[in-house]
Amino acid sequence: MNIFKIICIILITSIFTSCGSGNQKASSLFEIKLENNLKQINQNQEIGVSINNKKEKQIESVEYSIDNTTLPVNNGKIKVNLPTLGHKVLTAKITFDGETVEINKNLKLLSEKAPEIYTYNIINEFPHD
After folding, report:
1. What is the C-alpha to C-alpha distance for residues 53 and 59, in angstroms, rounded to an integer?
2. Which stretch of DSSP H or E encloses residue 64?
3. What is each CA distance from 85 to 37, 66, 79, 82, 88, in whole angstroms?
4. Which CATH number is correct for 25-110, 2.60.40.10, 2.60.120.10, 3.40.50.11010, 3.40.50.12780?
């Protein structure tokens, strides 16, 4: 009886842990790759972008966008020109085998000019009570 229980437990765990391609999410098949693995980009900067195709699927089309603003691709590069700065999500809509999937990458959009550092001089001091 104990051998039967052990065999059943092994069989059930092997069924649940078996790997199969049917249970994989479509969004895990692709990854957005940025030139030099950038996490921060400047306004009006052109960056190289590509899709890492993990399972060698036939890609029909790719469309990039940030904040629902479509970014045109020229020679594998996109130019980021948005009205607001800060944390953004780069979205790629990939069409393959008649199926469309969206993948995302978090970015930080910075100003193209570095901030000015203000200095000060103490002109006068007044005593306090």
Report:
1. 9
2. strand 59-66
3. 19, 11, 14, 7, 8
4. 2.60.40.10
What's the whole-model pTM score? 0.70
Closest residue by Cα to residue 65 from 109, 102, 18, 35: 102
Tell me what the pLDDT averaged over the chain comes to: 86
* Token output for 96: 């393959």
Q: How far apart, in Å, are the Cα atoms of 19 and each of 76, 83, 87?
A: 35, 45, 36
Which residues are registered as beta bridge partners of 102? 93
Query: What integer pLDDT is reported at residue 119 of this predicted model?
Result: 93
Residue 88 contacts residue 67 (beta carbons within 8 Å): yes
Alpha helices in the chain (DSSP H): 2-17
Written as one letter, the residue type at 57 is K
Compute the distance between CA of residue 34 and CA of residue 15 in angstroms, rounded to an integer.
38
Residue 7: DSSP 8-state: H
Can you give the residue ranges of every domain in the chain?
25-110
Give the pLDDT of residue 10: 85
